[in-house]
Amino acid sequence: MKSDEIKAVIEGLLFVSGEEGIDEKQLMDVLQIDRKSLKFYLAEMKDMYESAHRGIQLVEVAGGYQLTTKQDHAPFFKRLVQSPSSATLSQAALESLAIIAYKQPISRVEIEDIRGVKSERPIRTLNGKGIIKEIGRAEGPGRAILYGTSKLFLEQFGLRSLDELPPLPDHVSEEDVEEEVDLFFTKFQEQFSADAQLVLNEEGEITDDGE
């Protein structure tokens, strides 16, 4: 492959790796190139993203590489989160939020194991809205990001602490994981649909006025 094509592939790999990032060994294995060549391409990409004309940057975190937004643009991201059009959450985001609320600290993979589907996008949405936050890293290979609810979550749902979450049923077996998720979500809706500042509508979305 030519240099530009290799960098394009690296960009795609970084994109699909999301917030988990990708380490050098994975990149070398996929691209079938040595470390020196990989370093060369990553350095060129880093220089390219540092241009004022780009909205993302290439960063090295915990031995891996990620594409992230730039700190200079944070005020615009904050404005997006606070805009009325972003005041809704999808069913997938609500399910993920319920799981995080009860199971925190929890990794994306653990959330996906419970939901049975990919959950990167809803987690990114919740994180972007400030309802959840990164609260640490798991032990072991990859050191996956662990998520928990934020102060904003408590404020939006009128909770003084997580102790005020609706209680979960006792004696739920491993075989009833799917049912457990349904119970999470049902109780989540029952608890908060009446008096939360953000109210669930029939489509499972949160709105400011309950419509």
What does this protein look like?
The protein is an alpha+beta fold and 211 residues long. It has 9 helices and 8 strands. It is elongated, with a radius of gyration of 20 Å. Residues 194-211 have low confidence and may be disordered.
Oligomer: single chain
Low-confidence stretches: 194-211
The strand order across the widest sheet is 1-3-2
* Count of beta strands: 8
Q: List SSEs in N-to-C order.
A: HEHHEEHHEHHEEHHEE
* Average pLDDT number: 78
Helix-and-strand structural type:
alpha+beta
Helicity range: 40-55%
Task: Name its key features.
alpha+beta, three-stranded antiparallel β-sheet, single chain, 211 residues, 9 helices, disordered C terminus
Task: Produce a short descriptive summary.
This protein has 211 residues and is of the alpha+beta class. It has helices at residues 3-17, 24-31, 35-49, 74-82, 91-103, 108-115, 120-128, 151-156, 177-192, and strands at 22-23, 56-61, 64-69, 106-107, 132-137, 145-149, 199-200, 206-207.
Q: What's the structural blueprint in terms of helices and strands?
A:
Blueprint (H helix, E strand, L loop, with lengths): L2 H15 L4 E2 H8 L3 H15 L6 E6 L2 E6 L4 H9 L8 H13 L2 E2 H8 L4 H9 L3 E6 L7 E5 L1 H6 L20 H16 L6 E2 L5 E2 L4
Antiparallel strand pairs: 1-3, 2-3, 4-6, 5-6, 7-8
